[in-house]
Design a protein that fits this description.
single chain; Glutamine Phosphoribosylpyrophosphate, subunit 1, domain 1; Rossmann fold; six-stranded antiparallel beta sheet; 27 helices; 44% helix
């Protein structure tokens, strides 16, 4: 796991080679253990390394071919490295590094070798003989890679703030990206909020040369969804796939732990990790919220006791959460509005204090195996649509009068979202159910239409799960985990996103995922022998944070400043009157608008830190 960065010019020497050292400093948290930078007049390629496999400096990147014509740098982990090495028994490897195993494959096959990688990665390959640069990302988008064009040069880095070290990278606000953030709480690849910075798409390789740029997609999730179901779709086969994924992902020369909530996904991962590594070896980390309705730590403690893990609890009270928020918004040049980034950051920080460098988590299980309440909504929507208009109208009126709740995911909130969007096309309905409820009045809807076109022809339930895999998982959950963990120099791994587990999950028929009103039907059956019925059938809670109360209490004065009508009117980014109405209703207890207000607060903090001209204009 590392931070990688670099720049290439095809028209002479780099104009600002001095920027490379500042980029390295901006990424040092991703790789504090080793630093190597290779430069020539027309290129720079650097890596700040977090040493996980083969911790000797001989394994520090970038790696070069024997003739010095090809250079490779990678942020991530290659899980099938042993098999890749066996394919080239005569290659003179200099280390045991999983990343070095890629080099002979790239030398022999070029871009075609990427589809054979099993792992998470942001990858850069420079071919001096061909004068080409390849940039690639893993299938799901676990590892980031950003690009900026500056005067014909290509600059790239693992995080946006490294690219902003270049004074000529445009900091103009991307208005379409802003529309996406306000509506969803995150930005869809390849955009970022900076007009001058974009992402390499997940599951793709981008090739740059003097002649221009081309993109090759090697991972098509929709093909699995529309293809034949797995030959063996039984629970034993799924259990074996997840077990094998954990076996590969606990390989490390450093201590290994698991983020645990006490829910199905993390409990299964922790149980499998203990089976592989042994009792009193695996560390587990859980959040203990002082707000009782948000706290699941008793379940995590039970897991730790049953499986004999080395358990660590992190208290998540209001002052601690607010302090984490300030650190994150001050450090990350992209606004991450998922509140779960706060406890994820705190758990990662504790892991670093305990000298645990690798943490496994349950990301991907809900999207691949049907775990979200919205999926039940899509099953029920056709029934509601058949109701007479008068009855549906009365139902909407009755639900609208339900009192607001400050709980984690209250039933009244779900019901209000459900009936408000019931008659929309399924893709729009799903975005409405899972989004913030915000929208700019002059918003460009083109990105919504593009998403709907991508999902065209897929039934609602299967389409919603594919959409969440392609969008919510990629652009929200994995961003949250990567940034929160890497700010603490922690490598986060996701066994459910293993190549074979993902292909199996995507290809499963929807009846194996959501059966009746039971979500994650097959995964629950596969997990039962290891987690027990009480864990397998617990109501899904997720890593929720009491932001509704934070907005009214611990952050009250700051929220009033950030969302003041005068400030918002001066920015002209959102409807100031609408924001004032939502805040007033939230403060009075009449409505719980935390889902909409929290992204606004995060956006304003991001503007203060990363858009100083806009912040000054609104002062």
């Amino acid at each position: 796991m590392c931070g990688i960065y670099g720049a290439v010019s095809w028209d002479g020497p780099l104009r600002r080679p001095d920027v490379l050292s500042r980029m390295a400093a901006a990424l040092r948290h991703r790789g504090p253990d080793g630093h190597v930078e290779w430069t020539a007049p027309h290129i720079g390629l650097g890596v700040d390394r977090l040493r996980i496999v083969d911790r000797h400096e001989r394994a520090d990147q970038p790696f070069a071919s024997a003739d010095g014509k090809m250079w490779l740098a990678c942020n991530g982990e290659i899980y099938n490295a042993p098999a890749l090495r066996r394919a080239f028994p005569d290659y003179p490897f200099r280390s045991r590094s999983d990343v070095e195993s890629l080099l002979p494959h790239v030398l022999e096959r070029g871009i075609d070798c990427i589809s054979g990688i099993d792992g998470m990665f942001g990858l850069a390959v420079w071919n001096e003989a061909e004068r080409t640069l390849l940039l690639a990302r893993d299938r799901a988008g676990e590892k980031p890679l950003f690009i900026a064009r500056v005067a014909g040069e290509i600059w790239f880095a693992s995080e946006i703030q490294a690219l902003l070290e270049h004074p000529d990278v445009s900091r103009d606000l991307d208005r379409t990206a802003l529309d996406q953030f306000l509506a969803l709480g995150y930005v869809l690849e390849p955009r970022t909020l900076f007009a001058g910075v974009r992402q390499v798409r997940a599951g793709t390789v981008v090739r740059f040369s003097r002649d221009g740029e081309s993109e090759h997609r090697y991972w098509w999730p929709r093909r699995f969804v529309e293809g034949p179901p797995p030959g063996d779709a039984g629970p034993e086969h799924l259990a074996a796939l997840v077990e094998e994924a954990v076996r590969k992902q606990v390989v490390a020369d450093v201590p290994v732990g698991v983020y645990t909530s006490g829910g199905l996904d993390s409990t299964l991962i922790a149980a499998l990790a203990v089976e592989r590594l042994g009792p009193r070896t695996v560390h587990t980390f859980s959040a203990r919220f002082t707000a009782p309705t948000y706290d699941e730590s008793v379940w995590a403690r039970r897991l730790a006791s049953d499986r004999e893990t080395i358990h660590h609890e992190v208290v998540c009270d209001a002052p601690t959460l607010v302090a984490a928020m300030r650190t994150l918004t001050g450090s990350l040049a992209e606004p991450v509005s998922d509140p779960a980034i706060l406890p994820t950051y705190l758990l990662s920080r504790r892991a670093r204090e305990e000298r645990v460098t690798v943490l496994l988590g349950g990301e991907g299980a809900d999207e691949l195996f049907g775990g979200y309440p919205a999926y039940l909504g899509h099953k029920l929507a056709p029934l509601a649509e058949r109701l007479p208009r008068s009855i549906l109208g009365a139902l909407r009126s009755a639900i609208a009068r339900l009192p607001a709740s400050g709980g984690r995911v209250p039933l009244e909130f779900l019901l209000k979202r459900f009936v408000a969007s019931i008659d929309l096309p399924w893709c729009e309905r799903h975005l409405a159910w899972t989004g913030t409820g915000l929208a700019r009045r002059d918003a460009n809807s083109g990105w919504r239409e593009e998403l709907a076109a991508e999902m065209e022809g897929i039934p609602a339930l299967a389409g919603a799960m594919l959409l969440d895999y392609r969008v919510y998982l990629r652009d929200d959950l994995l961003v949250k985990v990567d940034r929160a963990s890497m700010l603490n120099s922690i490598e986060a791994r996701a066994p459910f996103l293993d190549k074979d587990v993902s292909a199996f999950g995507l290809a499963l028929p929807e009846t194996a995922k959501v059966r009746g009103l039971t979500t994650k039907w097959l995964l629950k059956r596969a997990s039962l022998p290891r987690v027990g019925a009480d864990i397998a059938h617990r109501r899904k809670q997720g890593l929720s944070v009491p932001v509704a109360s934070l907005l009214n209490d611990a952050l009250r004065d700051e929220v009033d400043r950030l969302l003041s009508p005068a400030r918002l009117r001066a920015q002209e980014l959102i409807d100031a009157a609408e924001a004032a109405r939502m805040l007033a209703e939230h403060r009075s207890g009449g409505r719980n608008h935390a889902r909409a207000l929290w992204p606004l607060v995060v956006l304003q903090l991001w503007i203060d830190r990363w858009m100083p001209a806009l912040a000054r204009a609104a002062a």
